[in-house]
From TrEMBL:
Domain of life: Bacteria
UniProt xrefs under InterPro entries: Cyt_P450_sf
Any one Gene Ontology molecular-function term assigned to this protein's record: oxidoreductase activity, acting on paired donors, with incorporation or reduction of molecular oxygen
Native source species: Actinokineospora bangkokensis
Protein name, entry field: Uncharacterized protein
Region (Disordered): 1-27
Length: 317
């Protein structure tokens, strides 16, 4: 069985811990792995594990979730099997630690297609879903067809590394032909643009750079950074062995009341997608008028604990 019961806790085995969709079969084995992993997250969340509560993908209060992630200490071991780094100082160390490696994102980003992006943005009607517009314009900017279902199928690539989606979604992701790095860039670009727009709609009159910084501080588009120790790693008095996974919880670290400074951002394989995300979000904020008004509630994706993007942001001119 992929879940083994020890003396006091459930733990994950290699069959489910950190499994990535492209690494698994596309049939019953994938379905079984995703279902069992999700079941474990719900079980451990019910037993009070703060990381499991986030990974299960249920809607939650971000401030309360961040506080719960920091409560056990700056670095602690979740019953999911992952180490959790939740304090700002420890997270800053972990992000730059040469002994912690992020999983690679295959592929390369193409030159931004500014004309295709701007065509999508300029075609918005009087009433529209700004989250959808941010997504379609991001796909177009990356040289893709916003109507191509392959892009939507690949969108959960970062979330699926820590929290497998429903079996049908997992199978679509595993067989998508979109490069993971491009899918990550589109997801992060759309998420950052939509969250910044939501702040503006709520009355934040800051300039584009300040809006983006505010998103990273409160609802970062990369909430959790999955890494693996490649050597013995010491973090805040804890010893992480080679091969063990470490989740850097930026959603908690960037809200740490004992921390200060600009929001922490991941580098490595996520650097290029985040650079695209910032440029895309600035383009969206510039293209859309500040007179936009909300026409309905904003809705976040479920089962997307790494990126937590807005999937609905209805607005009108």
């Amino acid at each position: 069985m992929p879940f083994e019961r020890g003396p006091r806790r459930w733990t994950q085995t290699a069959a489910t811990k950190g499994a990535r969709m492209h690494d698994l079969d596309h049939g019953p084995a994938l379905d079984r792995t995703t279902q069992l992993t999700r079941g474990l997250h719900w079980l451990l969340a019910a037993q009070g594990d703060a990381l499991a509560a986030v990974l299960r993908g249920h809607q939650h209060d971000p401030a309360a979730a961040a506080a719960a992630l920091r409560a056990p200490g700056p670095v602690w071991r979740s019953r999911t099997g992952h180490w959790v780094v939740a304090a700002r100082a420890a997270a800053a160390t972990a992000l730059d630690h040469p002994g912690l490696a992020q999983p690679p994102l295959a592929g390369a980003l193409s030159t931004v297609d500014v004309a295709a992006r701007d065509a999508v943005l300029s075609g918005a009607p009087a009433e529209f879903d700004a989250a959808d517009l941010a997504w379609r314009s991001a796909v177009a900017a990356l040289g893709g067809d916003p109507a191509d279902p392959e892009w939507a199928a690949a969108a959960p690539v970062l979330d699926a590394a820590l929290a497998p989606p429903r079996p049908a979604v997992a199978r679509a992701l595993a067989t998508s032909g979109v490069a993971p790095v491009a899918a990550a860039a589109a997801r992060l670009g759309a998420a950052l643009a939509a969250d910044a727009l939501a702040l503006r709609l709520a009355g934040d009159g800051s300039d584009e750079a300040a809006l983006l910084a505010a998103v990273h501080a409160g609802e970062p588009v990369v909430q959790l950074v999955l890494t693996t120790a490649t050597t013995d790693v010491a973090l805040a008095g804890e010893q992480v062995a080679p091969g063990e996974s470490v989740v850097i919880a930026l959603c908690a670290a960037n809200r740490d009341p004992e921390g200060a400074g600009a929001p922490l951002l991941p580098g490595g394989p996520l650097a290029a997608p985040l650079a695209f995300a910032h440029a895309h979000a600035e383009a969206v904020l510039t293209a859309l008028p500040e007179s936009l008004r909300p026409t309905g509630p904003a809705v976040r994706a479920s089962r997307a604990p790494v990126t937590r993007p807005l999937v609905r942001l209805p607005v009108a001119r």
